Amino acid sequence: MLPDPPLSLTLFESDLYICSLIAEQQRVDKTGVAMDQDMMNMFAIAAGTLAIPLLLFMASFMLWPSSLIKVYYWYWRRTLGLQVRYADCGGYRFCYSHRGKPGLRPSILMLHDFSAHKDTWLPMLKYLPKHLHLLCVDMPGHEGTTRTSTDDYSVQGQVKRIRQFVEAIRLNRKPFHMVGTSMGGTVAGVYAACHPSDLYSLTLICPVGLKNQSESKFDSQMHDVEHSQYTLNIPLIPSTPEEMEEMLKLCSHVRFRVPQQILQGLVDVRIPHNDFYHEVFMEIMSENSKYALHEHMQQITTPLQVIWGKQDQVVDVSGAAVLAEALPHCRVDLLENCGHSVVMERPRQTAKLILEFIISQQSTESTSTKKKS
């Protein structure tokens, strides 16, 4: 509302006064509108700036989920302080990630399972002390490690390659602790039997290669695959999101709700390598490799820890009893409500058990040294 003109003004002057006030009010209104417009523009620019990465994320999630998975692993490695390195051995290249330096505790070398990669261990590494010297290597032909059509992917062939890696980075200058899961567990067990002086201690997680007392669900499925002369797909080599979901159910007792796009991304990452995975699978299931761990377990003199999920549907938990009977001094840790993917399902508990085992071995060694002196 405009104020009344002063009484001393004439009628004409009053009109001029009122007109000037109206003009001033219009100028203020225009300025206010301009300021409001500027504020709106600023909010629009800010919203657009925030929307661009969000839209890019959504596009990546919908169109290229496999790329998003790779970025996820890269971010997780960076967050945990892991660095990716390469070791060249006469034309053969190993890819591995590592953290820390050799110290009072033995270094820990980790061997992943079939068709996996070094990042398999990330959930568990989160719970291991940062001062430990940790190494996670891509197994022969997997991920960043050299793949050739002429290489030997049998258990013994993989043991030779892992020894080549160990010597290339001079890891065995001091005895180290080795951890292997599933196929990696078989390779680790045979490695221990063949190169006992390299190892301080050994942890096998749900290893394959044993003559178990009971069959698993996967064993039954493989009977069907073999009877079909491999016209049926191998359950551990999925080629569709539906098969990927079934594989995750087979490998894990804990049920993870995985979005369809992530399932598609996991399949997209694997499909280019499925022929190779089939080749490796046939090698490790061949007569020379199928029971490699069983045939070598009596030769294992390294202090041994066995970790197994009680609800393992891939490799029956009765394998733990087979090892315990053959090697009475080994430590056996059975995990409740846990399947084959121990590292993924129980990462904190697995890390705790491995660390406790290493510390207990050092304590035993220290006590023995004191008694001798």
UniProtKB/TrEMBL annotation:
Catalysed reactions listed for this entry: Hydrolyzes glycerol monoesters of long-chain fatty acids; 1-dodecanoylglycerol + H2O = dodecanoate + glycerol + H(+)
Localisation per UniProt entry: Late endosome membrane; Lysosome membrane; Mitochondrion membrane
UniProt domain AB hydrolase-1: residue ranges: 106-347
Enzyme category, top tier: hydrolase
Alphabetical GO biological process terms: acylglycerol catabolic process
Coarse class of the protein's main subcellular location: membrane
Protein family (similarity comment): Belongs to the AB hydrolase superfamily.
Protein name (record): acylglycerol lipase
Record lineage: Eukaryota, Metazoa, Chordata, Craniata, Vertebrata
